[in-house]
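hiii so um. not sure if this is the right channel but i have a protein structure encoded as tokens and i wanna go backwards to a sequence. like what aa goes where. can anyone help
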């Protein structure tokens, strides 16, 4: 279907390596994995993401089930994680709860480079922390991940959208500025000015962007607490030498954000690879206790297409069995020696040696182990290097050491 795609084995190796690296980084900071459904009630996203956001208005996959319930494929996972946090009363178990998730999200958006209708995210959420150190922790984790990947030319764009009162004050000021210029803006922005004026700052239309550049910025209306929060965040990032710049028009596309919002970009690419921020009101708005919270999500499609980390060396060994007796004895032997860095590919089909070797060559496999009647008598496999033509007998008792030497070569 349009906007959907298959991720083939050659790609999934890179995906798995990057995912594993991110998971280890998160777990090193005390995060635990949570898995939430891809389907939720529509009203969950209307209440959390915002009824007048583009996501809810235009991009969601919405349907009724057989019980006549109105459901939606999740367009993002924060709302689902908050719902799970409340439903299972996780706030009673820990004062600070750190959770991470991964999986597919769905938005009926216009497909383009690195943007799909089914896309994948790895995300993290912290519940119970109100001060700027928690915001900074998320940014530090992302910085560590990108440094481990080997990406040096990344930068965070950061802004504050303030608390509820700051947002109300700034929205009124921004609305006054834009109303006189509305006729020069796109139709969507004309609607946004009336219904959700902060969404105008997200517009990518060139004519709107030129007007937005001249718009008042929220920094001038932030209350003292929001200013202090943001200044503390910058001070922490400076002490960790995290590269960032302030973007006074950054608001991100979700209504639940308060105070800190940020995006991570690589080099001169305008598209963010990761983004997040603070959402201190969302838990309370969904029926839970007032809880400070913040989080981020990494766009894995975009990340995997932009970076190519050094892959761990994995050796593939093709095993050919010649005859039923060789198959019965050989399978139990090779299954003892499978490990993370040796991929043993066995063909259990009764075919000729020539056919087996032709198959290994076609798949580009250099190392072949052959077990036939003669090899059984010698209590070993015949090893053949398809690249050099070298052959030798590898005794069953020596197979573990032989595979280790292949891996280390």
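sure thing!! here u go:
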């Amino acid at each position: 279907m349009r906007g959907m795609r298959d991720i083939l084995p050659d790609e999934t190796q890179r995906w798995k390596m990057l995912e594993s690296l991110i998971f280890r980084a998160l777990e090193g900071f005390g995060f635990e994995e949570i898995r939430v459904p891809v389907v939720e009630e529509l009203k969950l996203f209307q209440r959390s993401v915002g009824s007048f956001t583009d996501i809810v208005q235009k991009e969601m996959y919405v349907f009724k089930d057989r019980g006549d319930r109105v459901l939606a494929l999740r367009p993002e996972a924060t709302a689902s994680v908050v719902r799970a946090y409340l439903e299972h009363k996780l706030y009673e178990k820990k004062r600070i709860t750190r959770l991470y998730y991964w999986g597919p999200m769905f938005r009926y958006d216009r497909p383009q480079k690195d943007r799909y209708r089914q896309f994948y995210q790895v995300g993290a959420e912290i519940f119970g922390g109100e001060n700027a150190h928690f915001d900074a922790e998320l940014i530090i984790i992302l910085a560590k991940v990108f440094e481990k990947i080997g990406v040096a030319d990344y930068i965070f764009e950061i802004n504050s959208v303030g608390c509820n009162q700051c947002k109300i004050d700034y929205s009124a000021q921004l609305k006054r500025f834009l109303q006189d210029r509305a006729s020069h803006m796109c139709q969507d922005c004309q609607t946004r000015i009336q219904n959700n004026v902060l969404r105008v700052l997200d517009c990518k239309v060139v004519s709107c962007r030129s007007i937005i550049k001249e718009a008042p910025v929220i920094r001038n209306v932030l209350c003292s607490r929001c200013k202090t929060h943001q200044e503390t965040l910058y001070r922490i990032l400076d002490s960790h030498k995290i590269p960032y710049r302030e973007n006074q028009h950054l608001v991100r596309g979700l209504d639940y954000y308060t105070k800190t919002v940020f995006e991570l970009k690589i080099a001169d690419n305008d598209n963010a690879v990761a983004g997040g921020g603070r959402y201190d009101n969302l838990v309370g708005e969904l029926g839970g206790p007032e809880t400070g919270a913040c989080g981020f999500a990494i766009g894995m499609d975009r990340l995997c297409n932009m970076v190519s980390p050094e892959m761990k060396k994995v050796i593939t060994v093709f095993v050919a069995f010649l005859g039923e007796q060789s198959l019965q004895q050989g399978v139990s032997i090779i299954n003892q020696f499978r490990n993370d860095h040796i991929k043993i590919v066995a063909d259990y089909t009764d075919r000729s040696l020539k056919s087996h070797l032709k198959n290994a060559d076609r798949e580009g496999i250099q190392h072949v182990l052959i077990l036939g009647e003669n090899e059984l008598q010698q209590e070993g496999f015949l090893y053949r290097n398809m690249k050099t033509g070298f052959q030798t007998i590898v005794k069953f008792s020596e197979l573990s050491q032989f595979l280790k030497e292949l891996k280390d070569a």
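oh and The chain has two domains: 9-163+223-306, 315-408.
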